[in-house]
Amino acid sequence: MTFSWYGALLGLGVGLGLLLTIFRLPPMRRPSLDSRLGPYVRDAVGPSAYDISDRTFTPFPTLERLLRPYFRTGARALERMLGSGSVVRRRLQQAGSDMTVEEFRVEQLIWGAMGFAGALAFSLLLLVARGTNPVPLLILCVCAFVIGVLLRDRRLVEQVKKREARMLAEFPTVADMLALSVAAGEGPVAALERVAKVSKGELAREFQYALAQARTGVSLIQALESVGDRTNISILARFVDGIAIAVERGTPLADVLRAQAADVREAGKRQLIEAGGRKEIGMMVPIVFLVLPVTVLFAFFPGAIGLQMVSP
Predict the structure, then answer these.
(1) What is this structure's pTM?
(2) How many Cβ atoms from other residues are within 10 Å of residue 228's Cβ?
(3) Distances in Å between the alpha carbon of 259 and those of 166, 254, 264?
């Protein structure tokens, strides 16, 4: 690194410090309307409408609480840039998470900051050791920030897929338990309560939430339909629709539940057969590119050595 780059970095640091100082002066940080009205209406609308909850996202809770206003500002800026808050809210519901969209944006911001910090440390090492051009390194830092933000979104998608897989694995057993409870003489609500208490898992949590909605005044049919709306599993949506139709029209519910459980088992068998077919094709790759060349080599190598020994 030449002396000019040292001066540029020093000037950049001093300029950023002065800029932060100017923006934190009282005339430059006038309180917004929300911050002025928030303390007076906090009891009416709840603290989560104006502030991030007390949940911490890093191993440094004290430092995180000090930086919480900046996290809030960064989360709102990230929300304006990325948008799709409704999509994120639906994915959080599908993942069974109680996080808000703002808390998720804060986590995305932290992941991006971690990527940016790692890339910045690597760039400083390259600048000190080799004097590399800083422009590509700056682009690397920005790309690391973007990758960190996208990785957090990717992790949320993976959480949704894993939860849906667990719900599909629990579904036949829960359907059989519901059918047995209804066949024993219990009503739909009592059967759902028994299954929600006895069983454990993601599907039982969804039924508990639906029962909680039904106790607050929502009809059981709407509460069951909301279970299908919160998930992205077509089989579960058909299952709750069948229960809702049976409750609404008075058809035998036990037969409907048994038929739904049989359909779920058949769908699971089809998924296993499809997965086995994909795995069979994937197993051909090491056989064709690794095992077969080694077999051919072992077959022809002794003959080639013998021909070399016989030839004059």
Answers:
(1) 0.69
(2) 19
(3) 21, 9, 9
